[in-house]
Each structure stands twice: as C-alpha cells, then as structure tokens.
Amino acid sequence: MMQRAYIALGANLGNPAATLNDAIDALVCLRGSVFLAMSSLYRTAPVGLKRQPDFINAVVAVKTHLTPGEMLDELFALEARFGRRRDPGSGKNAPRTLDLDLLLHGDAVQSDPGLTLPHPRMHERAFVLAPLLEIAPEVEIPGLGRAAELLARCAGQRIHRLEPRAVEA
After folding, report:
1. Which domain holds residue 145?
2. What would the pLDDT profile of 114-149 be if each residue is shown by its tens digit?
3. 25, 101, 121, 158: which is the annotated catalytic residue?
C-alpha cells in the first residue's frame, strides 16, 4: 500500500536554489514513488550555529511504496550524489550542500537510532512548517497536532518565500 510522505530539502553552500531545484527534479524520479507536489523555495535564517549563509528550503510530497527505512536510504544516496558528507564530527545544523529529511511517512510513529518519525524537530521550525503547509494545509503531525497551529509558535523565525517554480512530473 502506498503511503504519503513529506520530505524537507535544505542547502546553504554553493548555489542552494539551483541545488534544491536539481534535487527536486531527482525526487520526481524517486524509486517506488509518485511525485505529488512541491512547495515554493524559502530563504531562511540558519537555526543553531550562527555566522553561516542563509538556507534555501522547500518541502515535497510523494506517494511511495518504500518503507521509511528504504526512503531514508534513498534520501541519503541522493544527498551523497550532491556532495553531502555525513561525518559524525561535523555537528548538527552545520552548513551543507544538501540536506534531505523525511518528515512524515503516512501516520508512522517510530523512534529508532537511525530514524525518528515524525521528524523530531519539525514542529519547532518555520522553515519546515511553512513550506509543508503550502502543499498540505490541513496536515497533522502525529502526536503534536495541526501544523498550522505549530507554525504560529515559530513566529520569531525569519523566513521569506521566493517565487514558485513549476516541476514536470
């Protein structure tokens, strides 16, 4: 049975808007999945570490036959194609060429060493919630509630919507 999944994209090294557009094109062809929608790109302030370039962020929706673990493997492989290195000592929130996060996979709730669903910090981040709500205005985050209500709690985070781009499915 196919599940609806949401994937967050982010980058702040090189040409992040071009990288995200190329990554979205790659997600259109994601194995075992049907591409449903993409948000606009958003320019956002970095969270955590300071003195780094702004991020460009987006969210895409797919329907997939992949399990959450298989989806995560596909996303890590795609990150690697775009030059992402996942070094244990690199720290969280560090600058990156491409970051792909599995936000939601159906109604799955899991907490494993390699994967937590829903994504454990998505409800605290305007750069995830705003693009998610653009493509799924009624979405609920299992155990946390409606994304629209959670976004209101992130009002102090700087985020700017860029012009939308069409994608060929």
Report:
1. 3-161
2. 899 999 999 999 999 999 999 999 999 999 999 999
3. 101
